[in-house]
Structure formats: structure tokens, C-alpha cells
């Protein structure tokens, strides 16, 4: 059974809503036709690496599945802040000497520096020193394939944000409905109603943009989804914490689990500035801007 992109995105939204631990966003790469290794795996789109084939005469690996090509790769450089990088097989997508390639990295064969994001999720830095990749593990990609992988990564992160935003709405509505102040629930105060409406609106904007990009995986749709998701984080977190009061900042608060992820995911796979710049360039290059916006 083929799992559609929309189904994968819906699952990621739910993972974001539940704040589940694990490299969920990093494993949506089945479209590349690569058999994923058993056990946990994560993905990184890397630049700044030094790659060289062991045989200088070979500048390009043949298509996946072909034989007779011995093109062991040696890699040096740094993979910064890899999600769950120290405990997972890392699938690296990058530009090789002869074009884009994908290859696995075993963290046990690297120098790993542990790290976390604001939410406490592992973000480990891996140092590769003349790391050897067997010929059978080097998978060539087309430039469009590499570009699509970047779009999928951004959409996956936006889906996680959409789910966490919906959790903020759920928790906030629950809190204002049950919390009594001055003899009546907080939700009965006009100012609270207005802020809740803005919170729901921001969350709905994110989910609508994510769902639209899941239907059509295009640079413009994904850029709009990630830009909206990242831009909405500040307002969603502000309103949710304001309506919760100090209780929302306690270490084990369910709201804190959601908002620290929102603040962390906002910048990962490109923040709103990065993606709005892409949207701006697309608009300037378009012959019909209205058609671009009305997709």
C-alpha cells in the first residue's frame, strides 16, 4: 500500500501535537527509493563537506541498482546539530564531486558532540574525519531530487509545528474554561475570548498552509507553509502562555512541552525569513503573480 504525502503529513501533525520523542520529521524520505536501515534513522541535508571518490577517474556513480562501479567515497567535515544524530543511522544528502548523493553515516565511527535544542530534543554534532563510505552505500540523486528532499524536510517541520500549535489551543481552551477568577471562568471575560480567537486563528492558518502544501509539493506551497508556521510561533506561544499565567512555564507543564518545541522548530529547516525571501523571489520571477498566489 502506498502511503500518500498527505497521510504522512497528518501523522506528523499528530506527532507534533503529542510532543512525541523521536526523529519523525527526519524519516519522511521513502520517495527517494532508498531502503531505510533497520532501527532509528535520521536525515541531514549537509553542505560544507569535503567529498572525494577513492578512484579519481570516477566522477559519477551509476544509477541505483547498477553494478560494476567501485566508487568508495571518503568524507570529511562537520554535520552540525543533527536530530538524534548520536543514536541513529544518519542519512546524509549533499552535493558530491559528480552530483548530489545520499549515503549513510554510522555515528559510532564519528566524533559525536552531544547537544539539545530548547525542548531538550537531541541535536548532536558529528565530526567526520576521512570517513569511508562503501561503494554500495553511495546512492546518486538528481538535482531535483535533492531539492525535493529539502522541501519535504521543511514541510515535515511545519507539520510538527501545526500539531504543537493545535495542542496549545486545546490546553488553553481547557485552562480558561476550568480556571475560575473573580467568580467566573476565565473564558467568560471578553479580553480572554478575544485572545483565544486570535490563538485559534493563528493555529488554523498554519494547518491550512500545511495541508495545502501536502496536496501539492511545490516550492511556493512549501515556502508558504513553513513561513506561516514559523511566523505564527511567536503569537501562538505568547497568547497561550499569557492565558495560562505562570503555571504554563513550570518544567512539567504540558504547555511548556508544546511551546519549547515550537520555539525550537521555528528555526529548523529554514525560518520565516528564509522562506519568505524564497516566496519574494518567486513572485518577482512570475509572469502572473495572481496565478502564483491563487494556487
Q: How many strands in all? A: 10
Please state how the strands of the largest beta sheet are arranged side by side. Answer: 1-4-5-8
Secondary structure class reads: alpha+beta
Q: Tell me about the largest β-sheet.
A: 4 strands, mixed
Mean pLDDT: 89
Helix proportion: 40-55%
Which percent band covers the strand fraction? 15-25%
Global geometry: globular
Oligomer: single chain
Radius of gyration: 22 Å
- What are the secondary-structure elements, in order, as H or E? HEEEEEEEEHEEHHHHH
What's the tally of helices? 7
Tell me the layout of helices and strands.
Elements: H1 5-18, E1 41-45, E2 50-53, E3 73-83, E4 89-96, E5 99-105, E6 111-113, E7 123-133, E8 139-140, H2 143-178, E9 180-181, E10 184-185, H3 190-215, H4 219-244, H5 254-267, H6 272-285, H7 289-293
Parallel strand pairs: 1-4
Antiparallel strand pairs: 2-3, 3-7, 4-5, 5-8, 6-7, 9-10
Helix pairs in contact: 1-2, 1-3, 2-3, 2-4, 2-5, 3-4, 4-5, 4-6
Outline:
By secondary structure, the chain is an alpha+beta fold. The protein contains 7 helices and 10 strands.
Structure description:
Strand 9 and strand 10 form a beta hairpin. Helix 2 runs antiparallel to helix 5 (254-267) and helix 4 runs antiparallel to helix 5 (254-267). The protein starts with a helix and ends with a helix. The protein has helices at 5-18, 143-178, 190-215, 219-244, 254-267, 272-285, 289-293; strands at 41-45, 50-53, 73-83, 89-96, 99-105, 111-113, 123-133, 139-140, 180-181, 184-185. It has 295 residues and is α+β, with helices and mostly antiparallel strands. The strands form 3 sheets. Strands 1-4-5-8 form a 4-stranded mixed beta sheet, with helices on one face. It has a 4-stranded antiparallel beta sheet with strand order 2-3-7-6, with no helix packed on it. The longest helix has 36 residues, at 143-178. The protein has 7 helices and 10 strands. Helices cover 46% and strands 19% of the residues.
